[in-house]
Design goal:
Blueprint (H helix, E strand, L loop, with lengths): L1 H12 L2 H22 L7 H6 L14 H16 L3 H21 L3 H16 L12 H25 L11 H12 L11 H27 L10 H14 L15 E4 L5 E8 L2 E5 L3 E2 L4 H15 L2 E7 L1 H11 L2 E12 L11 H12 L3 E6 L5 H13 L25 E6 L13 E10 L3 E9 L7 H12 L7 E8 L1 H7 L6 H13 L6 H8 L4 E9 L5 H11 L39
Parallel strand pairs: 3-5, 10-11
Antiparallel strand pairs: 1-2, 2-3, 2-4, 5-12, 6-11, 6-12, 7-8, 8-9, 9-10
Helix pairs in contact: 2-4, 4-5, 4-9, 5-6, 7-8, 7-9, 11-12, 13-15, 16-17
Length: 602
């Protein structure tokens, strides 16, 4: 009874129409591609059945099956994503194909099916509402024109590059006609004595035309990707909410990254920071603001998702935030790791459990290192520049990393409450450092009025082991004088699996999962980061990934890697390209605590 009710609701809402249309177009497109690629398929019974499908007549009644199939496959995804431009393209192609087939008196069933689908799509017009990127309209046009000219030139060469097998002496007009028809997947007037040459010319021209169609269609239908930017007014509102509710989430201050966008609840009492990456609307951390207003912000977030047919996802939310997201948005949650939090009042170097840390700190201090713990507002401009220079020189990769757990700047006047810990030691004779005697840096952002959260951890790679431990211990020891009672350290991926997998009585599945994580730790700092955090006797707060369905996880994973800059997509940097100067107060976001590479002492 419950299944019948659910089915009737689904049919009444018509939400199934875009998916059904998309999968139908995908199936027809695959049949068309197979029909064009496999010659025997054209004479098979399956070909006769596929011949009555509307996909075989969606171009000028005689276009090649490969091109038709590719176009339908491309349109299938856009239809499933409810793209309004894809809907417009299909409602033009369907009646056109039906008219051509009716005039030719071929496959009258095709014309009937096309008209039925046309009517269904018209009736369900409101189901196709997702917007494409308005900036892509002109890009799609220029792409079509530029590739069209280039393909014509290449096609002219292809047609004439086989003179020994060409039948007769075709005129320039016939060659022109052959190129134009070939780009649309049709045979032209130029004949070749060898079937192999004829096939080569045909498929080469058809491939060029397909390339133009695919790239133009992609630019016209690709997900909208607005430029993420935090405006000055939005930043003021974010800071106001953090001043009142910043203690709720240690990641709240990272909503002030200026390459994120924010969306507010109707009351303005809560917001969600996000960025759109590869069609995924990726939020980070919990909503900022009054918990009572979180549902309103989530509702606005999901409305924006539906408006653009994006995939919603949240990376690094707390358990409380995950419960609200799953309840209000109907999403699922997956635990991805734990955040290490140290209560300053409970921290001590005394006792057997802290012996290794105590010895390492004492050894590093005896090596001549001195530490300073200060608010950023207390630094001089010269000191800020030195710290920026040091952070730049110690960055492990050329690409700047960070999104969910990194601020992405240092020394901005608006971030005066941030805390910076520096280690100093004069360098050896004959060696110069980019920032004087600075050998390591920790940068913390505010967490409410009495907490700090680790943003950046970098050090000189030639410095002595134990320097990171020294910096963290000095920060914890200086915390009371700064009014800090709790310190959030690094994020440890899959910590609970590592911890439970080594306990007595762990099952074979859990042990196998832990073994895989330990194996992967050879390349990614999974186990080492967990053990480094555990040295300071923290308590662990789980963090979650919130997602719609399991089939969206690969796409969300790739988008997260792109957002955190572990996976970069774009043109390689040219050696002669001028290097851009970073903005005022900007340094690359450090990989810690987002689970990236952390310079951990052995």
């Amino acid at each position: 009874m419950r299944d019948r009710t659910r089915l009737s609701r689904m049919l009444a809402s018509r939400s199934w129409v875009p998916a059904a249309a998309g999968y139908a177009a995908l199936a027809i497109g695959i049949l068309d591609i197979v029909r064009g690629v496999v010659p025997h398929f054209r004479r098979s019974r399956v070909s006769a059945i596929a011949g009555i499908l509307p996909g075989t007549v969606t171009t000028l009644a005689a276009a090649a099956s490969i091109l038709v199939g590719v176009l339908l496959v491309m349109l299938a995804h856009a239809l499933r994503r409810r793209k309004v431009r894809a809907w417009r393209a299909v409602v033009v192609l369907l009646p056109l194909g039906a008219l051509v087939e009716a005039l030719r008196w071929r496959h009258s069933a095709t014309a009937a099916i096309s008209l039925v689908l046309f009517i269904v799509l018209l009736i369900n017009r409101r189901e196709f509402h997702a917007l494409s990127d308005p900036r892509s309209r002109w890009r799609a046009l220029w792409n079509f024109l530029a590739l069209g000219v280039l393909n014509f030139v290449i096609g002219w060469v292809i047609v004439g590059v086989h003179p020994s097998t060409m039948v007769g002496e075709p005129t320039n007009g016939e060659r022109l006609q052959h190129v134009l028809l070939g780009l649309f997947g049709m045979e032209g007037p130029v004949q070749y004595s060898l079937d192999r040459t004829a096939d080569l010319v045909y498929y080469s021209l058809a491939g060029l035309g397909a390339l133009t169609a695919i790239t133009t269609l992609y630019l016209a239908l690709r997900p909208e990707r607005p430029v993420a930017a935090l405006s000055g007014d939005d930043e003021k509102r974010v800071r106001g909410l953090l001043a009142r509710h910043g203690e709720l989430d240690s990641l709240g201050y990272f909503a002030l990254r200026r390459d994120k966008s924010v969306i507010f609840s109707p009351s303005g009492k809560a917001l969600i920071a996000y960025r759109v990456v590869a069609g995924v609307m990726l939020a980070s951390g919990d909503p900022v603001g009054d918990i009572e207003a979180w549902p309103g912000a989530i509702k606005r977030f999901m409305e924006e998702v539906r408006r653009h047919a994006w995939v919603p996802a949240v990376i690094g939310c707390s358990e409380a935030g995950g419960e609200v997201w799953t309840r209000e948005a109907g999403l699922s949650a997956l635990e991805i790791g734990d955040e290490a939090i140290v209560e300053v009042a409970d921290f001590t170097l005394e006792g057997r459990t802290m012996r290794n840390v105590r010895q390492m700190v004492n050894r590093t201090e005896r090596a001549g290192y001195k530490c300073l713990v200060r608010r950023v507002r207390d630094l001089s401009e010269e000191e800020r520049e030195q710290i920026r220079a040091a952070a730049d020189s110690w960055r492990g990769t050329e690409t700047e990393r960070g999104f969910s757990m990194a601020l992405g700047r240092f020394g901005d006047p608006a971030d005066g409450e941030c805390v910076v810990v520096t280690a100093h030691k004069a360098c050896e004779e004959g060696r110069s450092l980019p920032a004087g005697d600075i050998r390591a840096i920790l940068h913390f952002v505010p967490w409410g009025s009495n907490g700090i959260s680790l943003d950046l951890m970098r050090r000189d790679r030639d410095a002595d082991p134990g320097l990171n431990e020294l910096l963290i211990v000095k920060a914890l020891q200086a915390a009371p004088s700064l009014g800090v009672t709790r310190v959030s350290l690094n994020f440890a991926m899959f910590r609970s699996a590592l911890a439970r997998g080594e306990r007595l009585g762990a099952g074979p599945v859990l042990r196998a999962w832990r073994g895989l994580l330990v194996f992967l730790s050879r390349w990614f700092q999974i186990e080492s980061l967990y053990k480094f955090n555990a040295k300071f006797r923290p308590y662990w707060e789980p963090r979650f990934l919130v997602y719609p369905t399991a089939r969206d996880l690969p796409r969300i994973g790739i988008s997260t890697l792109q957002a955190e800059a572990f996976l970069t997509v774009g043109l390689p940097k040219l050696p002669f390209r001028r290097k851009r100067r970073s903005g005022s107060g900007s340094i690359p976001p450090g990989p810690a605590p987002s689970g990236g590479p952390l310079p951990v002492s052995p």
